[in-house]
Amino acid sequence: MHEQIAKYIPDQLDRRIIACLREDGRASLSHLASQLGVARGTVQARLDRLIRTGTLAGFTVRVRDDYDAAAVRAVMMIEVVGKSTTQVIRRLRGLPEIHALHTTNGNWDLVADIRAASLADFDRVLREVRMIDGVANSETSLLLSTV
């Protein structure tokens, strides 16, 4: 079974289902079926397969950009020592204030999008990141306003 999962390639209908879910992750099976012009059972079977194969890793909530206007936002560039990138990524993903995490090229190995409720929380997150084994260096810039 693992061999079939590894070889599964989403087709056009799968891509359309994913596109609809990106717009509304809470859309009902009936709504998706109506939007896509297929049977509800077809959507259910496709979703089951997308989840089973790991193509869909989960569902999430999107909020308006101004949802938490008082949040402290920052971008942190992180340098990782040696071959500890996987371990560092695992630890960073465990911090709820890390909104997004990206690998990158150049002087830095990772870029983290940080969102904290207060400066005290932001300070705590900085300390936690810097204490992770494998983090050699970091540089953080607060995001002051969106232009």
Short description:
With 147 residues, the protein is an alpha+beta fold.
Structure description:
By secondary structure, this protein is an alpha+beta fold. The chain folds into two domains: 2-52, Winged helix-like DNA-binding domain superfamily/Winged helix DNA-binding domain (Arc Repressor Mutant, subunit A), CATH 1.10.10; 72-142, Alpha-Beta Plaits (2-Layer Sandwich), CATH 3.30.70. Helices cover 41% and strands 20% of the residues. The protein has six helices and four strands, in the order ααααβαββαβ. It has helices at 2-7, 12-23, 29-36, 40-52, 85-93, 119-131; strands at residues 72-80, 98-103, 110-116, 135-142. The protein has a four-stranded antiparallel beta sheet with strand order 2-3-1-4, covered by helices on one side. β2 (98-103) and β3 form a beta hairpin. α3 packs across α4. The radius of gyration is 20 Å and the shape is elongated. The model is unreliable at 1-5 (pLDDT under 50).
